[in-house]
């Protein structure tokens, strides 16, 4: 039996070529609202209903990690975040280990749709990064 239940997608992170143009698109075309800016990382957090869309500049500190910008050979999505309940790091890590999966590191505090909370990162069989995120410590 799983030690948690997936509640919803917390946020999706897109790597973009032109951060300002992408923020404008998500705000003006899709009705998202900019809620936090992280220029030190080249990262913008936009509220999309109950969830978040994060935009990462491909030439910023976070975006460079993904290599070249999106095209036929390059990835555009940085990771998928799933909100889980409960977030019991020991039980989740034990469950992952039973399936031969090792988290990329210990739980860390990250910002998401509900605010800042603990999360673990892992990779699927194709190397896609999945974040399992727990309840926020404080509201966004």
From TrEMBL:
This is VOC family protein. InterPro entries: Glyas_Bleomycin-R_OHBP_Dase, Glyas_Fos-R_dOase_dom, GlyoxalaseI/FosfomycinResist, VOC_core. It comes from the Bacteria. Residues 8-135 form the VOC domain.
């Amino acid at each position: 039996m799983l030690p948690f239940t997936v509640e919803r997608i917390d946020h999706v992170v897109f790597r973009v070529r032109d951060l300002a143009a992408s923020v404008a698109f998500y705000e003006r075309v899709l009705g998202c609202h900019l809620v936090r800016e992280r220029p030190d990382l080249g990262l913008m957090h936009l509220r999309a209903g109950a969830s978040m869309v994060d935009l990462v500049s491909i030439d910023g500190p976070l975006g460079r990690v993904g290599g070249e910008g999106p095209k036929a050979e390059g990835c555009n999505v940085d990771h998928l975040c799933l909100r889980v309940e409960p977030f019991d790091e020991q039980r989740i890590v034990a469950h992952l280990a039973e399936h031969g999966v090792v988290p990329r590191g210990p739980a860390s505090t990250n910002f998401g749709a509900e605010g800042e909370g603990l999360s673990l990162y892992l990779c699927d069989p194709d190397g896609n990064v999945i974040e399992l995120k727990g309840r926020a410590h404080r509201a966004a």
